[in-house]
Amino acid sequence: MREVQATEAKTHLAQLLSAVERGETIAITRHGKPVAHLVPAKKQDRTARKEAVERFKAWRASWKGIDMSIEDILAARHEGHHY
User: Fold this and answer.
1) Cβ neighbours around 13 below 10 Å, total
2) Of 48, 49, 50, 25, residue with least CA distance to 37
3) What is the reported pTM?
4) Residue pLDDT, tens place only, 26-81
5) Are 16 and 4 in contact, with CB atoms under 8 Å apart?
6) How many angstroms separate the CA atoms of 43 and 30, rounded?
7) How far apart are CA 12 and CA 40, in angstroms?
8) What is the pLDDT of residue 68?
9) Do 47 and 32 form a contact (C-beta atoms < 8 A)?
């Protein structure tokens, strides 16, 4: 994996993105410490998201003693927030 300083990444972003499109992974560092990775986007992202949702639904179905519908959960998500 290639490492690039943040200032260099800022200056050469277009070239770095081209390298990532070719499959390379690039670590962006600040003062020698990694802070981010540029990685190729996976074409299976949509499938992975669907699988994650299905795993969550299965996990949610295993909850005992909690009788809340999705609508109840969505309605309660902002309860207690102060705007």
Assistant:
1) 12
2) 25
3) 0.51
4) 999 999 999 999 988 875 577 778 888 999 888 878 877 777 888 888 888 877 77
5) yes
6) 30
7) 17
8) 80
9) no
